[in-house]
Amino acid sequence: MKRTGVSERRGRWITDFADKRVLVTGAGKGIGRATAELLAERGARVVALSRTVEDLESLRERIGCDICVVDLEDWRAAQSAIKDCLPIDLLVNCAGVVYLEPFLDTTPDTLDRTMAVNLRAPMVVAQAVAADLIRRGEPGSIVNVSSIAAEVGTPNHTAYCASKAALDAMTRVMAVELGRAAIRVNSVNPVVTLTPMGEKAWSDPAKARPMLERIPLRRFAQPQEVAAAIVYLLSDDASMVNGVSLDVDGGFRAG
């Protein structure tokens, strides 16, 4: 099996991604952007996808990535765009949306739009990437960016929680089916992360305080901390890790 570049240096395993083409969705901001930057630092050829061209242009100036502008809510446009990005060796499904509504006020439109981006888009993107890997006879790794909201009921996050629980379930099915083709699939499940989306949802100190009190480390995550977990799961350092949902939560779920 072909592997990412791995070398031993002073007793530590150092993984690089030289000659690996990595697609990162949601790369314009937050966790996706931090992941794209870390992968580029480690030698990957990054393909950054977002619906906002200005974000992608600034990222390209910073790391020299290829860019793909598409709104993943439109699955046909997404499917076409991904085919133009192939071949892809590694995939990070990071694009996501959140709409804050109490359960009794959550509309079918909110649920549909959330599922379209947080669940259907990762499926469509991963189908195209995995099918091409199998056609080429190459191994691969896919990381779906989920959330502890997949397991923890969070007020005003009905559609978001449902979408992330479904994403974790899909991740397990993908791991079972695609593992036979040497394609590993895992998810990362961060606690509140201080991205633009996270700051929007948790900017109220009165709302944030009870959540912070449940995190043993007493702080929210930074995008770079989640990116480091994603890069680990992509790498051959995690070569026997398949089908897991890795909490990046400062101990939130341990309590």
In the predicted model, the low-confidence regions spanning at least 5 consecutive residues are 1-14
Counting DSSP H or I runs of 4 or more residues, the number of helices is: 8
For the secondary structure, the number of strands is 9
Intertermini distance: 40 Å
Could you give a short account of the major beta sheet?
7 strands, parallel
User: What is the name of the CATH superfamily?
Assistant: NAD(P)-binding Rossmann-like Domain
Computed over alpha carbons, the radius of gyration is 18 Å
At the fold tier of CATH, the topology name is Rossmann fold
CATH class: Alpha Beta
Report the order of strands and helices: EEEHEHEHEHEHEHHHE
- Outline: globular
Strand order of the largest sheet: 5-4-3-6-7-8-9
Structural class: alpha/beta
Number of domains: 1
Proportion of β residues? 15-25%
Average of the residue pLDDT scores: 93
Q: What portion of residues is helical? A: 40-55%
The CATH architecture assignment turns out to be 3-Layer(aba) Sandwich
What distinguishing features does this structure have?
single chain, seven-stranded parallel β-sheet, two-stranded antiparallel ribbon, Rossmann fold, alpha/beta, globular, disordered N terminus, 255 residues
Secondary-structure map:
Layout: E1 6-9, E2 12-15, E3 21-25, H1 30-41, E4 45-50, H2 53-63, E5 66-69, H3 75-85, E6 90-93, H4 108-136, E7 140-145, H5 158-178, E8 183-190, H6 196-202, H7 205-213, H8 223-234, E9 245-248
Parallel strand pairs: 3-4, 3-6, 4-5, 6-7, 7-8, 8-9
Antiparallel strand pairs: 1-2
Helix pairs in contact: 1-8, 3-4, 4-5
